[in-house]
Specification:
By secondary structure, this protein is an alpha+beta fold. Helices cover about 55% and strands about 20% of the residues. A hairpin with a 4-residue loop joins strand 4 and strand 5. It is elongated. The protein starts with a helix and ends with a helix.
Length: about 425
């Protein structure tokens, strides 16, 4: 029979009575709060990274190809030639690619105006992104005749508020290319991504309208949007695609020089901000683990002093110092596991509610999101719990040594 484990279970239930010792309650609470804070920190930072990444990628795509003029007077128009399309289709890490275009425009009402860029919809990731961020209306209705579809646009909440526009309104739009052209566009929807630097300048519409206004042919645009199969390897994929395009230019498979850009460089400021959050999380994890360990050590020392006569009795009955140490190590581990279970249960339940109902709001002007985002990464949560338990176990060496070194004679003389 493992009597140290049996004694530890009995001791952890009470201290001089049926009620739990205050030291045990404090230790359990400290472990639970520390683990809860650490889980929240990881989940929230992961949630922020996901939301910000989705917004940056939504506006910029994973990889963007631009045509670089090599001679004076050469335009930067991208053409989806059969050879270029074949190269992109045969690249194993590319999931999808789409020609995109944009053109400067001026939205004008009777008493106000605003300069914007009209960008084309069409790429699945862009359509899905704008659709998720719609606050009014819908995307342009693809079932409409082409002439009517071309005149439907989605504008940002910023533009709508500045020009006092609503869904269904029509607005005169002036397009500036070689000359000035005017179209009366209908607002099919209004979006709000909370990325003011993007929302302030972009509206979205039909690629055919931009091609018509820009005097370019079908299959041409100002860039090519590329979606890859693994965002975490974006830098590697960008380099491989640039090298492949240079090789294709050298052997005559493509006739233009293409510059490869990606979302990491286009949204570098946002990703640098997110990297600072990683440092904050590391600091929180270290501090919370330290708090949990110190509180548990303090609690165990109090319990050991409270059980001084019990320790003397064990030693007088022949228990070795190792067995005495085991009693208190088992007891502390049980307390730690109880704290871990409580902390995990309470915080995971709260995070689930936050993920589903967005209970905690945020200032979107400061954080680009109007609620606290969370993401569940069960692997990280498991590693966190194992690491905390291991650190707590190692930190229990000191109080267990103290308990084992108490002499039986001194312990038996102690009066409660």
């Amino acid at each position: 029979m493992n009597y140290p484990l049996f004694l530890a279970r009995r001791l952890s239930l009470s201290s001089g009575g049926r009620k739990s010792s205050p030291a045990i309650k404090v230790a359990v609470t400290a472990v639970a709060l520390s683990v809860a804070v650490m889980i929240a920190a990881i989940a929230i930072v992961l949630g922020f990274k996901r939301e910000i990444r989705e917004k940056v990628v939504g506006f910029n795509s994973h990889i963007t190809l631009y045509a670089v003029p090599q001679a004076e007077g050469e335009e930067n128009i991208v053409s989806m030639t059969p050879s270029l399309a074949k190269l992109l289709e045969e690249t194993p890490f590319i999931k999808d690619f789409t020609v995109e275009a944009s053109i400067p425009a001026i939205l004008k009402t009777d008493d106000n105006f605003k300069g914007v860029y009209l960008r084309s919809l069409g790429a699945d990731h862009l359509n899905n992104f704008i659709s998720r961020n719609l606050t009014e209306g819908t995307l342009p209705d693809s079932s409409l005749p082409e002439n009517s579809l071309k005149l439907q646009v989605v504008i940002s909440r910023i533009a709508a508020d500045q020009l006092n526009l609503r869904k269904g309104d029509k607005i005169d739009t002036y397009f500036i290319s070689d000359d000035v052209r005017v179209r009366r566009l209908e607002i099919a929807g209004i979006y709000n991504s909370h990325f003011d630097s993007y929302d302030d300048i972009y509206i979205y519409g039909n690629l055919g309208l931009i091609q018509e206004l820009g005097g370019i042919s079908k299959g041409q645009g100002t860039s090519i949007s590329v979606e890859v199969d693994d965002f975490n390897r974006l830098e590697e994929y960008s380099s491989k695609l640039q090298n492949e395009l240079l090789s294709a230019l050298g052997d005559g498979r493509v006739y233009r020089y293409y510059r490869v850009d990606n979302a990491l460089s286009q949204g570098a400021g946002y990703f640098r901000w997110l990297s600072l959050l990683d440092t904050n999380v590391i600091v929180i994890l270290i501090l919370m683990t330290f708090v949990a360990a110190i509180t548990l050590i303090s609690g165990m020392l109090i319990i050991i002093l409270d059980k001084k006569r019990f320790i003397g009795l064990l030693r007088s009955l022949g228990a070795s110092r190792g067995k005495v140490r085991q009693v208190f190590i088992y007891m502390a581990i049980r307390i730690a596991i109880t704290g871990l279970l409580i902390g995990n249960g309470v915080m995971l339940a709260f995070l689930y509610c936050q993920d589903r109902w967005h209970l905690l709001p945020l200032d979107a002007d400061a954080y680009y999101i109007d609620f606290v985002p969370v993401e569940f990464n069960w692997t990280l949560f498991l590693i966190l719990n194992i690491a905390v338990l291991l650190i707590i176990y190692l930190s229990l060496i000191l109080p267990s040594l103290f308990a084992s070194k108490l002499s039986p004679a001194e312990s038996m003389r102690y009066e409660e």
